[in-house]
Design a protein that fits this description.
By secondary structure, the protein is of the alpha/beta class. Helix content is about 35%, strand content about 20%. It has a 6-stranded mixed beta sheet, with helices on one face. Strands 5-6-7-9-8 form a 5-stranded mixed beta sheet, with helices on one face. Strand 5 and strand 6 form a beta hairpin. Helix 1 runs parallel beside helix 3.
């Protein structure tokens, strides 16, 4: 398994999730740069691409947010297959049809078939929220802390960008250092893997928790694309069929567990 790659160029499949267009702290300029340097045969959008919840509370949209959508639609016009699996922040299919003008395939879930014949369930991940509970008080504290840290991270990375320095995943570092947060992430991964195994799939591709990861758990693949608020990461499949996690601009995403090499293709 590879967890980083420099400027992939042409790939077979690009998986993106949790862009949160319409959210003030979305790192859309970094994503625009990333999309400019990658060509994919198919692009799979794994939910929360547009943050309808944030837009409902306070409308925020810039030219960079529009440019992300135009970049994705341009890839479709150039021949890429564009597949959309809505998440909890963009669950309104009518909204998606209006915004994207029917130019994408929209599915509640999708099955990605590898060159080896492995079947991977592609789902945003919010379906596991009721199975991975979180205490109400912890939710309130977590929301407040998250807002503060994301705001700080946004300011820090705007300054770093102005100085020509790479993106620094500050929120991710803080989140992984907090015990309850780390335990929630681990529990989510366990539940997602168990679900894929119980449903007869060989693995799962998801987003939702803003924690990129790629590992093989006793023969079941767990692939989380990460996000474009905290980690600026994506999952790709190279032209020779290898799954890789990318962090913008070209840094490695350190593996948290030892994992076997994964080789995949897409149907």
């Amino acid at each position: 398994m590879t967890t980083g790659l420099r400027r992939p160029g042409k790939v077979r499949t690009l998986f993106l999730s949790d862009i949160h267009l319409g959210y003030k702290r979305a790192r859309v300029r970094e994503l625009c740069d990333f999309l400019r340097g990658i060509e994919a045969e198919r692009v799979v959008l794994v939910g929360d691409i547009i943050d309808a919840l944030s837009l409902a509370r306070r409308f925020f949209w810039t030219a960079d947010h529009t440019h992300v959508i135009r970049s994705l639609l341009a890839k479709r016009r150039s021949g890429s297959r564009l597949i959309y699996i809505p998440g909890n922040h963009d669950a309104s299919l009518s909204m998606m049809a209006e915004v994207l003008h029917g130019q994408v395939e929209v599915h509640r879930e999708w099955v990605h078939r590898t060159a080896r014949g492995e079947r991977l369930l592609v789902t945003h991940g919010d379906r596991f929220d009721g199975i991975v509970p979180c205490a109400p008080w912890l939710n309130r504290v977590g929301d407040a802390l998250y807002y503060v840290t994301v705001t700080l991270s946004h300011a820090v990375n705007d300054a770093r960008r102005a100085l020509g320095k790479p993106y620094w995943p500050l929120v991710e570092r803080i989140k992984l250092g907090i015990g309850p947060s780390l335990r929630y992430i681990e529990r989510f991964e366990e539940v997602a893997i168990s679900h894929a195994r119980a449903e007869g799939y060989d693995g799962i591709v998801c987003g939702h928790i803003h924690r990129a990861n790629l590992r093989n758990c006793d023969g079941t693949l767990y692939c989380n694309t990460g996000d474009w608020v905290e980690s600026c990461s994506a999952l790709i499949e190279t032209v020779d069929g290898e799954l890789q996690l990318m962090r913008w601009p070209d840094g490695r995403i350190p593996a948290r567990r030892t994992a076997t090499r994964l080789v995949a293709d897409a149907a």
